[in-house]
Amino acid sequence: MTRRATNLSQRRTSPQPPADYRPYGDRRPYVVAETLAELHGPTGGTVMLPRHLDWSGHAEYDLDRPARLASMYKVVLTEASTVEDLNKRLDADLLRRLWPTLWLPSQLRQRWESKFPEITITRNNVT
Fold it and tell me: Where are stretches of biased composition, namely Polar residues (predicted)?
């Protein structure tokens, strides 16, 4: 006996989100540093991120490898829950250098760039 899906022909419209729906990225509480001067994270060597920042199973980052450095900065920026997470793990000069190339959620990028226009200037000079 073959079973057929029911109600397929009766579905004519796709479900619509509620009128007040906002995408998760718009609601996510991204943390932004208080000042760039307080970002004194490591600039080389190997860093092991705590589980609350990186639960991927690959939380060890060799900062001397450019791709892993950029990956760690993206993880910290998107997953930080406190300003202290940022201050301990990001370096201001490295952040300025990496900023134009980091793949970040647009809301996070807008929040950082509105607070720190000098990052935007660096980004515009590179592009």
Answer: 1-14
Q: Which residues contact 43 (CB under 8 A, 6 or more apart)?
A: 63, 91, 93, 94
- Distance of alpha carbon 63 from alpha carbon 66, whole angstroms: 7
Alpha-carbon distance 116 to 43, whole Å? 21
What's the pLDDT tens digit per position in 48-89? 999 999 999 889 999 999 999 999 999 999 999 999 999 999
Count Cα neighbours of 36 within 13 Å in the Cβ-side half-sphere.
14
Q: What percent of the chain has pLDDT over 90?
A: 69
Q: Report d(CA 101, CA 127) in Å as an integer.
A: 10
User: For position 15, what pLDDT does the model report?
Assistant: 78
CA separation for the pair 27, 111 (Å, rounded): 12
Is 89 buried (19+), middle (13-18) or exposed (0-12) by CB count in 10 A? buried
